[in-house]
Design goal:
Blueprint lengths: L2 E6 L2 H9 L4 E4 L12 H13 L6 E4 L7 H12 L5 E5 L7 H11 L4 E6 L8 H7 L4 E5 L8 H4 L2 H13 L3 E4 L7 H5 L6 E4 L15 H12 L3
Parallel strand pairs: 1-2, 1-8, 2-3, 3-4, 4-5, 5-6, 6-7, 7-8
Length: 229
C-alpha cells in the first residue's frame, strides 16, 4: 500500500499527523524553500517525542536547500546522522556534474538511509537513477523545486511518473512522489504505485504550505490512499 507522508514543523503538528493517518513524519520548514531544514534542536525535539509516543512512525528530515557542494552536503548529513531520524533527504539541485557529490556520499551511505530528491523542473542525466543507487541511496523521490502551486503533473505526464516509479523500484529503492499534491492527485498518480506520497500544502488550511495542518485533509488523504488497494 502506498503510504502517506506528512511534512510537519513542530511536535504539535507531528502528533496531529500521527493521530489522523500519517504513516511517515517528515520534518521540514516550509518557510525556507522546497526542502527547508528545521533547526537541529527542533529536529531532535520532534524525533525524541515521536520515538516516545504510543505509536511511533518513521521519521525523515531534509538537509535543506543546499547546492551540490560536497563539503556543505556532508556537513549537514553528518549533523542529521546524529539524530533519531530514520531517513535523510538530499535535494539534487541543478549542477553540471553530480558525480563528485555521489562519490563523496558513497562511503557514508552504507550506514545511513539516504533519500535522493529529484525535482520535476530540472533535467537530469539519463543514468541518474542507477548512479544514485550505486552511491548507496535507499530511496528516490520526485518533488518540485518551485512551490508555486504547480504539481509534478505540470512538468511530467502520468506515464513518465509510472515509468520512473517502475525504474526506481526495480533498482531496489523506495520511490516517493510529492510537490504541491492535493487529494485529487492521488487517483491520478496512485496508479504508479509509489512507496509513499508526500503532502504539506495539500494537508494544510487554505492549501497553503505555510499554514497549519488540517486534520480533515490528513484523514481524507489517508482514506484515499487506502482506497487504492
Amino acid at each position: 500500500m502506498t503510504k502517506l507522508l506528512i511534512s510537519v514543523t513542530s511536535i504539535d503538528e507531528a502528533q496531529l499527523a500521527m493521530d489522523h493517518g500519517a504513516d511517515i513524519i517528515d520534518l521540514k520548514d516550509p518557510h525556507s524553500g522546497a526542502l527547508g531544514a528545521l533547526p537541529l534542536e527542533t529536529i531532535n525535539e520532534i524525533a525524541n517525542y515521536i520515538h516516545l509516543s504510543k505509536n511511533p512512525k518513521p521519521i525523515s528530515a531534509t538537509i535543506g536547500d543546499i547546492p551540490m557542494q560536497v563539503d556543505l552536503i556532508l556537513h549537514q548529513v553528518n549533523l542529521l546522522a546524529n539524530t533519531k531520524i530514520d531517513f535523510i533527504k538530499i535535494g539534487f539541485f541543478e549542477a553540471d556534474n553530480y558525480h563528485s557529490c555521489l562519490s563523496a556520499i558513497k562511503p557514508i551511505a552504507a550506514n545511513l538511509d539516504l533519500i535522493a530528491v529529484l525535482f520535476a523542473e530540472y533535467t537530469y542525466p539519463v543514468n541518474i537513477v542507477e548512479d544514485i543507487k550505486q552511491a548507496g541511496f535507499k530511496g528516490l523521490m520526485l518533488d518540485t523545486a518551485h512551490k508555486n502551486g504547480r504539481t509534478i503533473l505540470y512538468y511530467h505526464s502520468r506515464k513518465y511518473c509510472e515509468d520512473l516509479s517502475q525504474n526506481v523500484r526495480k533498482s531496489g529503492m523506495t520511490f516517493g512522489l510529492a510537490g504541491s499534491l492535493k487529494l485529487q492527485d492521488i487517483a491520478i498518480l496512485g496508479v504508479s504505485q509509489p512507496t509513499y506520497m508526500g503532502f504539506r500544502g495539500g494537508a494544510c488550511t487554505e492549501y497553503s504550505r505555510t499554514e497549519n495542518l488540517d486534520r480533515g485533509k490528513i484523514e481524507a488523504l489517508s482514506n484515499a490512499l487506502k482506497s487504492l488497494l
